Amino acid sequence: MKSMTSRAMRAIVTVSLGAISTAAFAQADYPTRPIKLIVPFTAGGGVDTVARIVGEELKGVLGQSIVVENLPGASGMRGAETAVRAEPDGYTLLLSSAGEAAVNPHLFKNIKYDPSRDLAPISLVVKVPNVLVVNAASGMNSLDDLIAFTKSNADKASFSSSGVGNPQHLAGELLNRMASVKLTHVPYRGAAQQVTDVLGNNVTATFASYLAVASFVEAGQVKALAVTSSERIPSLPSVPAMAEHPQLKGYDVTNWFGLFAPAGTPGPVVDKLNKAVVQVLSNPVTAKKLADLGSYPSPKQPEEFKSFLATESEKFKNIITTADIKAQ
């Protein structure tokens, strides 16, 4: 009886060691086939464009194609949920904006995933500051001018964004709180209409990406008053950061895109992907392509990115709670 038990135990140990060896070999050899990169928005948008630029460069580093799959819907949650449910083997990744990973959990009661539990952070990819602009004919040339206008025109001062609860909306609400003003939020479904309505004087101001407003700034149709990052951006070096204003010290509401894998993805696979992302973003040619879009390479180690995510999530939660923002 003992002999049979010993043989059975040896067999189990042999099989277990074989499985461990096979898994270790597979991780060392990773990747051996194309990698799917889920983008939770439509093709042609900011996240999609960054995904395709970075994905093409990752192909050269990893030796496998990066296949972008657009899964828009439910404020980015459809794509994120699909990524969370995928096999944690490194062959399905998610390029998430701040919304899916740090905003939506505080905005939607029916969210079906917890980013801190269900996603493995690989690296922050880019930061995407927004720009606060007004109609160039408004006579406003600074944040002080906008604040003064808002205080004397509280009934009609407004700002637009591309949706309830996104970083642009949160940027405006934080301005309201820190400057003690009340710009009424007007949400749109995309950047084009929100900028158009600034030009048509239907809203006072808008927060939008550099890419969305660059041509209007260059044409002299809108005036850039500030950027929402903690520092000035290379694309608009003469435009101050919001935080430079005495009433707005510490202000920083920046959108960002980060790379994630499903929770449970082996550490060696996450580390290999992180090193590949850092290598790609360190390439000056790639960095310039991204910067031209107003997206600034900001790679982090997995643990650093995890801490960054927690800090951002808490910041967004605070803005949402204080402003009593409700999903629509």
UniProtKB/TrEMBL annotation:
<comment type="similarity">
    <text>Belongs to the UPF0065 (bug) family.</text>
</comment>
<dbReference type="InterPro" id="IPR042100">
    <property type="entry name" value="Bug_dom1"/>
</dbReference>
<dbReference type="Pfam" id="PF03401">
    <property type="entry name" value="TctC"/>
</dbReference>
<feature type="signal peptide">
    <location>
        <begin position="1"/>
        <end position="26"/>
    </location>
</feature>
<protein>
    <recommendedName>
        <fullName>MFS transporter</fullName>
    </recommendedName>
</protein>
<keyword id="KW-0732">Signal</keyword>
<dbReference type="InterPro" id="IPR005064">
    <property type="entry name" value="BUG"/>
</dbReference>
